[in-house]
Amino acid sequence: MARNIFKERSDWGEPVNATGGQTEGALIMSLVPPLTATDAAPAAQANLAKIEKAFGTVPNMFAVVANSPAALQSMWGSFGAFSTGALGAALTEQIAVAVADTNDCRYCLAAHTALGSQAGLSAEELATAQRARAADPKTEALLQFAHSLVENRGKVDRGEITGLREHGWTDGQIVETIAQVGLNLFTNYINIALDVPVDFPEVPFQR
């Protein structure tokens, strides 16, 4: 994951407006301060080093989550586990942008659009995924399910599960999709609740 997926500047003291653009006036800061490897507790330092190696820097979200070594381990460990999962990198990012758009999470939408591009998805495919749509009916069925999970707080009906199976999704992939949505809710809520500054190129919402 290369540095060029980030904005050229990601300074915490940089003035930003509600959409992440530059503006004059009061600084908008995260409600919980970011930590560096030097500031963080020893229990968080190893994961911060892994994150910096993966991205070339520590994204703002992880720097904030580092305030809780347990939360950082949970988040980074989950990303690692899913990297070898049954859904693949591209579909993982399509799910992530669908969830982020549904939840109005600017940070996660920007981050996962950048990561989705690195996974080989086109700008059109990513924008379409924000609406839980896809050119491939099988993929769209899974994205619609992910959207339904968020909108209905997990209360999906049996017909949705049956429909996924009819599209060729395995029970393992269905379970993994639910887990992926859960991880994305975790990251969405961190970024929304703590107003984490976006350090990826920003992307407009589609819904």
TrEMBL record:
Residue ranges occupied by any Carboxymuconolactone decarboxylase-like domain in the UniProt entry: 79-145
Keywords recorded for this protein, A-Z: Oxidoreductase, Peroxidase
Pfam families to which the protein is assigned, alphabetical: CMD
Nucleotide-binding is among the record's keywords: no
SUPFAM superfamilies for the chain: AhpD-like
Molecular function per GO: peroxiredoxin activity
UniProt cross-references to InterPro entries, sorted A to Z: AhpD-like, AhpD_core, CMD-like, Uncharacterised_peroxidase-rel
PANTHER family: CMD DOMAIN-CONTAINING PROTEIN (PTHR35446:SF3), SI:CH211-175M2.5 (PTHR35446)
Protein's name in the database: Putative peroxidase-related enzyme
